[in-house]
Amino acid sequence: MIQSSSMGFATTPKSPKASSRLVHAIPHKWHRSTKFRFSGDAVCHFCQRPLGFGFLNAWEKCRSCKWKVHTQCKGRVGDSCGLTPDHLRFLFDKLIQENNGLGMWKDPQSVPGSRSMNEPAFQFPDTAIDSSSSTNSSAPSTPALPAGITGNVTSLTAPYRSERKFLFPDTESYSGHNRVPILVISEGDHPSTSEIQMETENHNRTASLSGKIESEGTIVGNQEDLSGSQDTDAEVPPSQEAVDKFNKRAEGGFTWERHAWNMSTIRGPNAQASWNEVTIQFETIEFDKSAPIIGRGRFGKVLRGYHYGDVAVKVYNMDHISDVSKRAEEFKLEVSAYKNTRHDNIALFLGYFMSDGKYGMVMSLSRGSQSLYNLLHGAREKLDLATVRKLAQQICQAVSYLHTKKIIHKDLRTKNILLENKNKVVITDFGILSMKRLAYPKWKSGYYTSKYWTNNIAPEIALHLRAEYDEYECDDFPFSENSDVYSFGCVWFEMLTGSMVYSTELPHQMIFAKCQGIRPVLPNVKCTQELKELLVSCWNTVPQERPTLSDINSKLTAIPKKQRVNRSPSFPVMMKSYESTF
Ligand SMILES: Nc1ncnc2c1ncn2[C@@H]1O[C@H](COP(=O)(O)OP(=O)(O)OP(=O)(O)O)[C@@H](O)[C@H]1O
Hints:
alpha+beta, Phosphorylase Kinase, domain 1, Transferase(Phosphotransferase), domain 1, 6-stranded antiparallel beta sheet, 3-stranded antiparallel beta sheet, globular, disordered N terminus, binds adenosine-5'-triphosphate, zinc-finger, metal-binding, Kinase-like_dom_sf, protein kinase activity
């Protein structure tokens, strides 16, 4: 087993089976686009000749590793976007030899030439940031991490954010992809006003967020937050164009929410009525003026309100859609996932509103008013096995229900799991995450993510992170039911151990580990071997080999609860009744 160290991956193999854990079998998923593609000066990754452009382009692209190759070169690039067996053997030997695994961070280029090392995985150090990090053979073997990054995890406690920089493929040969992707990670729980504004001013944008962080996930806001026009936009069903776009995305195989649409809801004669049924006029919602804001997230803020009872009002930031006239349609596509959900462990959607510049939805207010994240990391509560099992089952049931509705959560984290009470969770924030949202405000390249976003993403998602943010491919990320299962495994782990998966590693290290097929380390948790195996199977590097959530739920239900042991009492017991002795 590969064990984690504070810096990277410790490497004491405990069994001869260890190497099998490193298997990184992500076969290429070639697809030929039928869309008009302008490839500019892009070249075939194999032969380095131009790809050409047009409708009938003779090149194909791998959905997993994003390689673009001529159709005739396809057969020559090998059958895996991951590591070659030779490379894996080499890496594994190296990990063992170097005892604590740090060596693999020191000199990635010392690994013998291999397509997969040079290209799908990123490399340190960053040439653009630190000259000592040259990728040529004269590069020093000492770690030369980019500015702002240290190997010491205590840097995570630095205020708000630092720029995490990692370099994906070989910059020289990866023409057009040679910029460094940047993850701006909230080091606090959420970016504060000034931090958001600082970033947005940098990009000539304005942010409407205001307030100061009071505690985890809780922000005291200004009253202006509630002001603004309360005119409601004309409620119209999404246009044909929007529906087609949505379906096209879905044909990419990753966004299936289209099935959640009842055709009469979209186009049928009842479309207007259907949307009207779930429309709430913004002005009919009353807000708690003294403490309106429950919390603020990456995509908006949550307010405490009153609408025929206590409600939570989630106001979304739609600035990532630059064309203002398209925001309403995009927003409807996002909330459509909520419209059709009715499950005891899913936040109850009550309606949505679209005011002038305000987009949001009204949900039932979670009584507990705290997330599972708060419970585990704020209150530092230790959950007993029975509670973990119960909550895990509820999460499984809720997310597998979403899957039956063809909705992919995409962002399953303990922050998005609210506690009604200690025995009941409700899932929220599903289907909202998009790379387009994470890539806003747009800048050179990179993403703004929540602090622990990287921990729970599946390896196939990590493999898709690129320096070059491509607006037209941003929805091409392979989110799937299987990636939800991976994230579920992380949540389950968190409930069992009280800490995040890969908790000692920096985001770029986590991404590297995921790209290398290295799974989270399971510490000595007190649960049966059967449960451990089930948990680890959620992290299978081959997405299709992960169990489904309904399978997991069935197994959790089937595993017998700990039998009560009839111990002999420590005090004398009258075995026979008084009368019987006579
Ligand atoms: N229905 C609800 N009832 C009560 N509180 C809620 C509800 N929905 C969200 N919250 C709380 O509002 C706060 C902000 O939630 P939001 O989903 O916007 O961000 P987040 O999940 O905390 O952060 P991130 O950006 O990492 O997703 C959180 O503290 C969350 O617990």
